[in-house]
From TrEMBL, chain A:
Record's keyword annotation contains Transcription regulation: no
Main location: cytoplasm
E.C. number: 2.3.1.46
Protein name per UniProt: Homoserine O-succinyltransferase
Enzyme class: transferase
Native organism: Halomonas beimenensis
Domain AB hydrolase-1 as annotated: residue spans: 50-358
Automatic annotation (TrEMBL), chain B:
Species of the source: Halomonas beimenensis
A Pfam family recorded for this sequence: MetW
SUPFAM superfamilies: S-adenosyl-L-methionine-dependent methyltransferases
Record-given protein name: Methionine biosynthesis protein MetW
NCBIfam families: metW
Amino acid sequence: MTELPQDSVGLVTPETAHFDDPLPLACGRTLPAYDLVYETYGTLNAERTNAILICHALSGHHHAAGYHSLDERKPGWWDAHIGPGKSIDTDRFFVVSVNNLGGCHGSTGPNTPNPETGEPWGPDFPMMTVLDWVHSQARLADRLGIERFAAVVGGSLGGMQVLQWTLSYPERIAHAAVIAATPKLSAQNIAFNEVARQAIRSDPDFHDGHYAEHGTLPRRGLKLARMVGHITYLSEDAMGSKFGRDLRSEDFNFGYDVEFQVESYLRYQGDTFSTSFDANTYLLMTKALDYFDPAAARGGDLAAALAPASCPFLVVSFSSDWRFPPSRSKELANALIRAGKPVSYVNIDSPHGHDAFLLPEPRYQAVFAAFMARVAHDQGLEDRR
Amino acid sequence: MMRADLQLIHDWVPQGARVLDLGCGDGTLLAALAQAKGVTGYGLEIDPDGITACLARGVNVIEQNLDEGLSNFEDDACDLVVMTQALQALRRPDRMLDEMLRVAGECIITFPNFAYWRHRVHLGLRGYMPVSKSLPHAWYDTPNIHLSTFNDFEHLCRDKGLIIVDRAVGVGGHEGHWTSRLWPNLFGEIAIFRVARGEG
């Protein structure tokens, strides 16, 4: 690439914030010190009222928008929605996007050194929860001088972090956008996660998570985990229209090599992922998904659990999402209604399944942009463009 | 400039009420009520442009088909349920009336009066299904599948033992004209009812 698109935030460089104050975790352990890697887009205004926090999903990271270099083929994972003139308009907003603890893209996690041993944490890295992430994000906000976010925004597992923000730090969040998420995983969701975990853990190269010491990587397990996960991100229709029963060659080979295009696609997705993602991180992230259930402490009464929330919510689902289907978003929206909280709920008609939250789609963009325009209005940011 | 029926509703809504607006459109009414009377609540809508407009206005809007009922709202969740120009498009207007008065003690309903004299001329003299400002669609593509009159609606309320608290008419800009006050079923183009739960 010689020139970046006009509506891109352009070249971005990740930053690292080091924290020495120990972070107590939900699992009972404490992270003595840690790094958080993050990116920012746009400019924080003098009043510090225009900050947006982006929370990432299972395999996401801090690189949400723009390019790290002119050679980078693809921009950040949410570039469709973050940039000048986009839904999250960086001409108005100051966007913070952080790699969560336990991740494998620079923030402290299984593949970073354990200060006690000097060796990578590996499987000894403490189990993380959505609540832990939110606490760590709040500390990053402190560091950046952001007392209150104009909005906290996220899709999927990111949406769960947004929800947790409204409960743990209601005074520090002015608006919440919870996209393609769920207030808790279903048995089927947990079952898929368990298949993914077993795929990784049963790989002979996994060595109970100590693969770094053994100089191996559980690539086959991670590949399988990603393949099964990927199926749940797409809709049956999307897969059907993309691949159908198309074959790679003219006719059947009557063997177990790749024959159908969908097999080739899944293997490719799995292969790519298995060389770029850490298996221990994947395991930990799926557990964080499984554990999330803010209503549990209130005997399953979600409306009661939502009592601390005070900001306006936007809840968005996608019609063909069967991982976290519209009914799960409605469950959240209805609990917010029962709790008397300000909420808007929109179900976007999309054929793209769960992945739709990452993609540009005219109605999704219109809805997202309208809500963010409201955020700007409420924060008094309108006249500054 | 607000639609005539919306202006009247605006005057009827008490300060600080919790309002549910069924078929809230672009959120004009809820936004005006929030600003003028500190009203809170939700609008239900299925039209994408209406929903987007609500979001931009800061009106809480829930994408929800009214024919699926209001089961996500608890008994007495609101003080007032408003439904303007949607009754005639519902599959079961009678059931919706029950739902509305489950969710709130009082509701305001507006609908096109099918017995309006111009409609009668269309059907009675000319022999065509009425097409007017309040009923702009042709018979084959109209969303208005349950048309009724002032008298019909009063009848339904009576059958259900509901209390008609107030009643008004809207005629394109001339609501309150003496003819429509005297003979609403003939001269009222838009019927506006304020209905409350019956005792017991």
